[in-house]
């Protein structure tokens, strides 16, 4: 009872009396009243918090007086954690990290002031007082110092915010509504209330044509925006991976998803490579066709061999002319329609292929560095379990199938994170380590022996094909060498997979990396033998013929046969393997990531090797990837299961891009550079038929510019000192390597800084725990001293009485609150000393 009386006596009420002059004087504008409102709002909050703390301390003292044996008020923790007092808990509840999102009125006040400033900036004057009603203007008379916030204050802020939003332009109003930290329902209410009524709009339309023009402009902008959204939606719907990637990631995890993401990346690289080739080579030569050759009849076998009626088309190198297309020439060199465009086809062929490769190189290096930074800069998975649990759900999802898909995706991510967290290597004895090392050495020796046997078989069979050439009427014999190599590429990975069962790696990531390494050695050995076969042996045996067309057709046959074997393996091989696994192992097999990824890298390497000899080979690769995406997805859903041991593929994309860059692209670039600088072109076909090397096309063009006049001397100087001089090539290579090295060092430094910041955050958390414990101990000592002083200064509090506790302790409490703080402390010390002396 007495606590309520004391709380009422301590409540402070701010009452400003009305004076007659207030009614006659002019009221302040909403902008000026808002400043006063904010300042007094802070004062009100401080006073209310002080009153609340005083009331809380009185309740604690009353509890101590009523139950002296209980000590101070405590909270029991079920898990045996630290127990804090009520005062400590009140301070903890007032921390900024625990009060976020509570004060909606503060948010409304903040954005109200912001809209006032924007409106004054937009209009150049003060807001009009007419639309603002008197009840919507804040006044100090309405504020009482209460412990709970008043609803009237929030309503006033809400109405002020609505009035100010109505004065802003529509685009600025929508932008501000999006940024407000309010719920969607509250944003919808604000948007509905801030819309200008139609009657007012018509009234404004009658005042002039400015509003009509602004409305027309706004309507046109909305129409164009809606049209753009519709076109963007249609473009997203045309992508084959629009829904499939989410489904694969949710059902099979990030490890299998990395394969399809890599396939999508290869598709983008081929599109980027195809665009300049089609724009500057294929389209121009198709517009200015050379003299037609007698084309053989198409039998349908050309789709597999690439020869026949495909030979004398823009598909291959030999079709392109060797003249400037605007210069009159004889009938043996170019067609009669040439002469309308100053375009040198040899120069365009060389520079277009070089520029396409340079653009691909820059894009590939940038993608690799970006992926490296994303995966290795923040590669640690510590601390993201809570983020995955509480922050992964997308609340914009409204459909049932999308919510189920997102739920499966989050569950799979949690499984991968927990599997990586629980993965730990057990300690092994010395004998166990020696046994493991012996098994690894034996498996690697067998794998390298298999790779060596495959390379020797390819070399032997290619030599046999050179000694027994294929007759022109038997084009099916050209498919024998691609068939043999595809069989080796298909059988060797299964052998590696069987040998990997002997190793029994603890980490599934290490198992995938080892399989990728073995398959990479196999593909590299086979492609190295094939490059030697094409440029070292075939060029010498095809003298007098167009050896560039033969190499282009050979690469086309390899791509087609590899695609056919990939389809057969997906449709039938994985189906048979699934049936065997379900009967023997009681489960579906897992998706072989290493073999499938290396097949993609192998096909892309064939594409880069054949760009110089077949400019339309990237188009074949694009069609191949699109079909392969759908087939692999269907086979994955029907014949495979999720990995039995989930693992997080955080660095797989970076590893795939690295393998695509250095062994694949670098090897193809070396192959093409050797063909351009060292190998003599054919004398019967192609744009370089009269030159010793393809590189001489640039030298001939520079000499022609020198003969024309002195205006082109600077081009000859650039060609002589920047292109022909090897110093510039070595300098450019050194700069590229330096940039790569600096990028790696920057990423390492960022990782180190991130680790230090994480450690600092962890230390700050420990500092907070330490400060909270110290604060708790200080309050315990303070409450213990207050309780002792009350007991020894008021003997009636410790003597049992027939009256109520409040009535018996009221004189003591009055005596407790009467003196000042120093007197209380001095009195407490004297009482304690006297008690100690009596003891």
TrEMBL record:
Coiled-coil region: none
Domain TMC residues, every copy: 546-650
GO molecular function term, any single one: mechanosensitive monoatomic ion channel activity
TM segment ranges: 259-284, 347-367, 437-459, 479-500, 512-535, 654-677, 726-744
Entry GO terms, CC: plasma membrane
Keywords from the UniProt entry: Membrane, Transmembrane, Transmembrane helix
Membrane topology field: Multi-pass membrane protein
InterPro entries per the UniProt record, alphabetical: TMC, TMC_dom
Cellular compartments annotated: Membrane
Similarity remark: Belongs to the TMC family.
Record-given protein name: Transmembrane channel-like protein
Species whose genome carries this gene: Heterocephalus glaber (Naked mole rat)
